[in-house]
Amino acid sequence: MPDAIQITGLRKTYAAQGNAPAKDALKGVDLTIRAGSIFGLLGPNGAGKSTMINILAGLVNKTAGKVSIWGFDQDVNPRQSRAAIGVMPQELNMDPFFSPRASLEVQAGLYGVPKSERWTDELLALVGLTDQGNAYARNLSGGMKRRLLLAKALVHRPHILVLDEPTAGVDITLREMLWKNVRRLNEQGMTIILTTHYLEEAEQMCDEIAIINHGQVVVRQSTQDLLSRTDGKTLVLDTGGAVPHPPLPAGARPETRPDGRLAITYPPSRLRADQILDAVRAAGVPILDVAAEQPDLEDVFVELTRD
Q1: Segments in the chain below pLDDT 50
Q2: Which among 56, 114, 261, 267 is least surrounded, fewest beta carbons within 10 Å?
Q3: What kind of architecture, by CATH, is found in domain 5-227?
């Protein structure tokens, strides 16, 4: 099985407009995404994520570099490369006078899917829109419109599915439904590329993550390795009430939280938890309960994208 995506030296420069100077949105990006993975593409606003996705989808022309999708070079086999990928956009773009069923049929026709190979009814069932299949799209709720966008991205049975901020502004029920379907599609062999600002989603869903900032990939690692980059753990102690911060080994940082608990952050590469606890006991501070907190993806993200 080939790599799902191979990007080499990808650059995109937007020409100067009016008083605005030319902008380098992507600055020589190299990135490979394994087939069958759930891959997170993260970064702050304006980092270049949307530009990269639009280039993959064939909506934006690159300035330089090479992009291969499911083994097809975009420049050599543009039709095959576009047919291998489906994109669920962040914006709710659809014809308000089409029903979901009609929208899927039109989308399938645009991709050249023969009528005998279309799976409109199955798609409507997959995203929970069977009962609304013949209703006007303008009458659908915001969450239902997002479900329709997912179905439209799947009409041609792509090998790769790109989800651009799929859960922005949706409720918990829709979010759970979406991730259930995404996991099912991935288990069937589909490669998933996810962009999101909900970092806990990326942490739970993604096998690998790349963080892009200022048009460059600053890190690409497995999710587990990425989480281990931050050398910091926290012990949260219930001391029975507000007490002065006890003397601690060098490198440990105490903080009293609003609920009165004592939080001590320390570098596990240089200190052990028992050294922290021994220092607290030696200062005469009672320990009624203790909990440990690991760094999360948000900590790593902030550290790597801090200007």
Answers
A1: none
A2: 114
A3: 3-Layer(aba) Sandwich (3.40)
